[in-house]
Amino acid sequence: MSKSLPARADVAIVGGGIVGASIAYHLTKIGIANVVLLERKQLTSGTTWHAAGLVGQLRASRNLTELAKYTTGLFEGLEKETGQATGFKQNGSISIALTEGRFEELKRGASMAKNFGLEVDVISTAEIKARVPHYNMDGVTGGVFLPKDGQVNPIDVTQALAAGARSRGGKVFENAKVIRILVKDGKAVGVETADGTIEADRVVIASGMWSRELGRSIGVNIPLHACEHFYIVSEPIADLARNMPVVRVPDECTYYKEDAGKLMVGAFEPKAKPWGGGGIDEEHAFVTLPEDMDHFEPILASAIARVPLLETAGIQLFFNGPESFTPDVRYYLGEAPEVKNVYVATGFNSIGIQSAGGAGLVLSQWIKNGHPPMDVNGIDIRRIHPFQSNKSYLRERVSESLGLLYAMHWPYRQAETARGVRRSPIHPYTKDLGAVFGEVNGWERPNWYARDGVAPEYGYSYGRQNWWPCADYEAKQLMTGCAFFDQASFAKYIVEGKDALAVLNRVSTAEMDVAEGRVVYTQWCNERGGIEADLTVTRLGGDRFMVVTGAVPQTRDLAWLKRHAEGKACVAVDVTSGLPMIAVMGPKSRALLEKLSGDDLSNAAFPFGTSQEIEIGFARVRASRITYVGELGWELYIPAEFAAHVFETLWAAGKAFGLTPAGMHTMNNCRMEKAYRHWGHDMSDEETPLEAGLGFTIAWGKKGGFIGKEALEKHRAKPVRENDWYAWRSKTTRSPRR
Ligand SMILES: Cc1cc2nc3c(=O)[nH]c(=O)nc-3n(C[C@H](O)[C@H](O)[C@H](O)COP(=O)(O)OP(=O)(O)OC[C@H]3O[C@@H](n4cnc5c(N)ncnc54)[C@H](O)[C@@H]3O)c2cc1C
């Protein structure tokens, strides 16, 4: 290795695992050749070297599936392109169900796969047996076969990606630890190593389980934590077919892979062992962790029962290695909201090999163009909330994350660990009222209220939900009487300053120069006209506004706003914690709130889309007449210390009006019924307001325009869009887009 590090690079990548190598490969492929990949030890020496190398294609969404498909295609051609073997083998994969619920899940996955353009077959027990004759079929209900799934050698793939990068001018340095990321004026400007400093326009943290600490050193939040991850490899088995597909038996938490005549058995056990929370040894490289037979024994026992050949084969290797996991079992990609020009690609939750190609493709284009080429909000680093880096939270949560890869992916499945983290001030009251909580970024939110003998817990199912009668009752009360929703989790920012109006007008599609007390529904678009955020803005005073958005995009939307307020006389402050919100909705909400406040809340005195301060009990609260459920109602924004008092007052008076607690399921059901969109589900940065049917928010003629106006005007003239991603996708997928 040469230690003559360059003085400057367009992009410095920290970490020479498969992900860092893939980013270098893809950056050089799209013309950014001045790339430096810095690895503290040797390439692959972190987690990559010991991965099992399974490469599956079906993921939870269309875009992630497209990326996984892209990865397979990349691996297929990499050897030819670089001359470096990759061990790529396309023997397909079989997932086996042992319960009717699992078979239903697999069949749903198969129909999704077909829709995404993947080859897939639902197969019977007999067909499974024909493909993997050594497997015991006891208890098997059926399975699915994906013929294009496969396996690779992760070390070889990483070397091939690095070779591809080098061949186009990229530089790869081993034994080159990045000691510090250099930041100036809120922007990354380079990296410091023991052998010198490299000035860089962009820095990518692709440092595996080291990423959390590296990010923290510059104020970038990357919540991940390693867990021990196990597999065994048998002695050679004479009868084992070399073309055996990868087999997954998720109900037994196991996967099987043929590996040079031996059988590898890996585990995704329900309760994993967090590792390395106290810090990772500086010298850590190609490390294996101690065996833990007690921990692995239940997996091994079911593996022996499933593949009886294992009983006599003997175990050649008991492997235990660390891998990083995240609180929501999704990896992190994109530009960090805290520091400009710092990009993140890490936290791969045991699918880093099969995700590496797609992650490299997306991040390289993100770096080049300043935005991702497609909607990747599910993996965008901006979904993270600051508290999630708390070590105790992480340690507890990741013990569950690992097992979730093979657990049943029930609709509405709730996390079982690290619960009760963020609670509304009225949480004890809603709990007493029978709330069954769902967790979103740490918030405990009443999803539904158990009643009429329904047990206050989820009865998971792919069929009719056990909570349905309760939500149905809530909706009927909402439509005929009144109901309240605890919406403390909704994010709120106060935007203030001489330039506040100009900044908000620039980012919003709607006109912000409205009368004091007006509530305006708007989108925030990017230059391409895609919807970055969907929210309301209330003008509190001349230069003072309140922005209200969802719980999930709290970090993302604030970061977007702050970036566009840079250099302006305007501050945006997150007041979510201090300003819980209770929504009172339904035809009787007016009478209830009039009684409580003593104010006239008629249409004339308090029109829709306006906001006023009213009194409830001994408190003053901001009441905004707006609705996300399609009924007459008010959102009450209450300073946190008054929330319990306001709730008690509301609840006591509400009895006479039939006030009913209602949960997030009812909110979702009712808003869907009215076709109120939800960012992240119904629209994303890939769709424009025009496509989303939200063109009515756009103030085309407003002074100074707004971000995305030019693209939207073109789109208005010619509704079918053309962009890189569409062009790329139309070349790579056979499936219709929608
Ligand atoms: C037992 C096991 C089986 C697995 N099986 C599969 C599988 O079948 N399929 C699959 O898709 N995934 C699998 N995985 C997961 C996969 O191995 C990882 O997701 C993937 O390797 C992560 O790659 P990475 O590049 O993000 O991290 P790493 O490989 O850990 O690379 C990060 C690199 O950054 C370097 N680094 C850290 N700090 C610095 C610094 N300051 N300066 C310079 N360099 C630095 C480290 O030395 C390291 O080499 C498995 C994991 C395990 C543990």
Counting DSSP H or I runs of 4 or more residues, the number of helices is 19
CATH homologous superfamily annotation of the domain at 1-83 and 152-224 and 326-384: FAD/NAD(P)-binding domain
What's the rounded overall pLDDT mean?
95
From the 3D structure, determine the CATH topology of the domain at 1-83 and 152-224 and 326-384: FAD/NAD(P)-binding domain
Category from helices, strands and their pairing: alpha+beta
Bound molecules: flavin-adenine dinucleotide
Shape: globular
- Record field, number of beta strands: 32
Task: Note poorly predicted spans.
Answer: 728-738
The gyration radius over C-alpha positions equals 27 Å
Percent strand: 15-25%
The first-level CATH class of the domain at 1-83 and 152-224 and 326-384 is given as Alpha Beta
CATH architecture of the domain at 1-83 and 152-224 and 326-384: 3-Layer(bba) Sandwich
Distance between the termini: 49 Å
Largest sheet: 9 strands, mixed
Proportion of residues in helical segments: 25-40%
Question: Would you write up a description of this structure?
Answer:
The chain is of the alpha+beta class and 738 residues long. Among the domains are: 1-83 and 152-224 and 326-384, FAD/NAD(P)-binding domain, CATH 3.50.50.60; 491-576, Aminomethyltransferase beta-barrel domains (Alpha-Beta Plaits); 581-660, 2-Layer Sandwich (Gyrase A, domain 2). Strands 4, 5, 6, 12, 13, 14, 15, 16 and 17 form a nine-stranded mixed β-sheet that branches. The protein is globular and about 85 Å long. The two termini are 49 Å apart. 51% of the residues are buried. Residues 728-738 have low confidence and may be disordered. Flavin-adenine dinucleotide binds at residues 14-20, 38-41, 45-48, 50-54, 177-178, 206-208, 210, 214, 229, 231, 321, 323, 346, 348, 350-354.
